[in-house]
Amino acid sequence: MAAYLLRRLLLVVPTLFGIILINFVVIQFAPGGPVEQLLAELRTGGSGGSLGRLTGEGGGESRAPQPRGESGTSSYRGARGLDPALVRDIERSFGFDKPAYQRFGEMLSGYLRFDLGQSLFRGRPVLDLILERLPVSISLGLWSTLIIYLVSIPLGIRKAVRDGTPFDAWTSGAVLIGYAVPGFLFAILLVVLFAGGSFVQWFPSRGLFSPGAELWSFPQRALDYAWHMVLPTIALVIGGFAGLVMLTKNSFLEEIGKQYVLTARAKGAGEGRVLYGHVWRNAMLLIIAGFPAAFIGILFTGALLVEIVFSLDGLGLLGFDSAIRRDYPVMFGTLYMFTLLGLVMQIVGDFAYTLVDPRIDFESRR
What is the rounded distance in angstroms from the CA atom of residue 276 to the CA atom of residue 160? Predict the structure, then answer.
């Protein structure tokens, strides 16, 4: 097992390189880059935000000079009517005066040291932005995945045991409704019903903590955190448990019909002994195999719209905003962290295989 894990860890490096290279090449052909966006703001007389930070207004770092004239041309459509020297200064401040291969090499060199670069529009290190928002996404992903598994696995087993009964029929209907309605619609409904939308306000509608919570004691902050997490977690759980319930049911149904189960029952084994002593390990293999993808999906993609509804500043919202603004360092920094975590979770899933079924030996595979 140790040699297998070592090989998998070594494969992480070329996999990361290939994913980042493909995305980097695609981005080079995407229109509306950060230089064009800033030039469009300069041309329309925009102020504040990224323009203020880049031109020295608003207390940010000075990254580019103010416009000096209205003549000259540039390859950027948004630069028409601006001084070519200004355009060159902006390109140099963003690093776009260098060839693409040189920028890619510098980016990879920084990633080897976990230096993810500097945000183009926020004036802060990308790693700091990710670490600042990581607790929000970890909170949503961890609690949602935990509750989904705690609910889905027992429910799926129960549906398999009582296949074809009224219980199976009405729970299947509830599962289909949960599967069909997106999580963000449940989030909006929860806000309307329980967060002061139109009925009662039992729960807060934004953030992870109440104002001034940093001055409270740890037990008070923990309760406040749990209070804020109730509605976002429910929204993710309702939209995410349906697939796992059906996967669990089908896995157990397939194993229950096999010969070794009939033999165990013929020997007088009880239902609990059959399910959890014989069927469990075999049926859980598919479920464990899907855990890394489920966790990563909830952590970084499924939570995006829920983060928007509940004003939770997490990694999903950070990546989405960076893609809209063409903040390339943040885009590639979050891609790098997401991919690295996803690959590591796949290795963890393989290791969990051997814990559930010791008969699995990856070393013996050819």
Answer: 13
| Of the ranges 28-42, 205-219, 261-275, 332-346, the best mean pLDDT one | 332-346
Give the pTM: 0.70
Give the pair of three-digit tokens for residue 187. 């989030």
Q: How far is CA 364 from CA 22, 36, 265, 281, 359, in A?
A: 33, 55, 32, 20, 11
158-195 CB burial, b ≥16 within 10 A, e <16: bbbbeeeeeebeebeeebeebbeeebbebbbebbeebb
Q: Rounded CA gap, 65 and 69, in Å?
A: 12
How does 223-259 read in b/e, with b if 16+ C-beta sit within 10 Å? ebeeebbbbbbbbbbbbbbbbbbbbbbebbbebbeee
Q: What amino acid is encoded at 144 in this protein?
A: S
DSSP per residue over 22-59, as a string? Answer: HHHHHHHT-SS-HHHHHHHHHHTT--SHHHHHHHTGGG
